[in-house]
């Protein structure tokens, strides 16, 4: 049971880190695209598209990690119910 709680804590930490990185890349994408619109420098558009290209996989990965964390919580609840029945 304690090992399972350790795994949940690890997943929550990973989830937090990935959320922060995802937000950072989304902000960088938005800022560089806005900077392109204001300045018209084509290099900023390319950079914004590259940031956006990294943001999309991060969104999918974060979604996966969120679902896995929820599954761990469901498993923890099942373990507790079995332990209470004994």
Provide a descriptive summary of the structure in words.
The chain has helices at residues 2-39, 42-85. With 86 residues, it is mostly helical. Helix 1 (2-39) runs antiparallel to helix 2 (42-85). It is rod-shaped and about 70 Å long.
Topology:
Blueprint: H1 2-39, H2 42-85
Helix pairs in contact: 1-2
The helix tally amounts to 2
> How would you describe the shape?
rod-shaped
- What class do helices, strands and sheet pairing give? mainly alpha
Taken as a percent bin, the fraction of beta residues is under 5%
Question: What's the short story on this structure?
Answer:
The protein has 86 residues and is mainly α. It contains two helices and no strands.
Keywords:
86 residues
């Amino acid at each position: 049971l304690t090992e399972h709680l350790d795994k949940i804590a690890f997943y929550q930490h990973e989830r937090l880190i990935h959320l922060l990185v995802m937000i950072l890349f989304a902000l960088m994408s938005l800022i560089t695209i806005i900077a392109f619109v204001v300045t018209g420098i084509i290099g900023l558009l390319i950079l914004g598209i590259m940031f956006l290209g990294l943001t999309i996989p991060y969104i999918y990965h974060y979604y996966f990690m969120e679902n896995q964390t929820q599954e761990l919580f469901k498993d923890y609840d099942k373990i507790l119910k079995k332990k209470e029945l004994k």
